[in-house]
Design goal:
By secondary structure, the chain is mostly helical. 76% of the residues lie in helices and 1% in strands. Helix 4 crosses helix 7 and helix 7 packs antiparallel against helix 10. The longest helix is centred in the N-terminal third of the chain and has 34 residues.
Amino acid sequence: MSGFFSSPSRAGKPVGGLSSRLFAAAMLAFVVLFVGGWLALFAADVAYTSWDAVGQVLRAKEIRAALRLSLWTSGLSVLIGLVFAIPMGYALSRYRFPGHVVVDSIVDLPILLPPLIIGLSLLVFFRTDVGQFIENSGFKFVFQKKGIILCQFLASASFGIRAVKLTFDGVDPRLEHVALTLGYGRAGAFFWVALPLASRGIVSGAILIWTKAFGIFGPLMVFVGAVRMRTEVLPTTIYLETSVGRIEVALAVTILMLVLATAALVGVRILGLGKS
């Protein structure tokens, strides 16, 4: 008898029984524990925050400015990230070149290293001759809004590149070869065959880039600071409010970020991935 806790047998038919149900229950228990733990943390935040704190967040012009800055910088970081993630993911998936393993490893470094290193490295770079030349040419990044986007991009792009590469790995290259035999060039096969088949993975990459960019904190504190009405984004707002003891306001901003992130993730997955 098949059911929710049934599993396939070697003959391809579902096999029920107590052992299968116990195994499925054990696996689902980890899901319940993990998700339940996070929901408990969110519930504690909501219970601790007062409606007055929520009202302060909605009324404060500084926090509204931080919200606007967070949204447009993280959105632009997604666009820039995809500009790199799509060709890089395709190149790392389809081509083998000298140093491929090294390059592939470097792409993963921002995922493994503490994000604070990005801000510190940027600060040091812009004190070098090359960095000073860039700054003196009118492209100022240190303690500027453009620096927010640079930090967000460097901290989040690797997640998108990796997601897109894995997607192209799953696209059969023979489909592109068929397009080549039909008269398409290499670029045509990419745009008309590989790219549409990888669309869901690209959406997933965009989601990963945005979630990382939207919540980044450490590099921003080092490279652009947390100047109100200038370089303050929502993560730095939480830090500033906590530093002066306004825990309820900081938690209200946290809840706002959670609501926005959840709405964005659900919305993009429904529209882009066709999931309901």
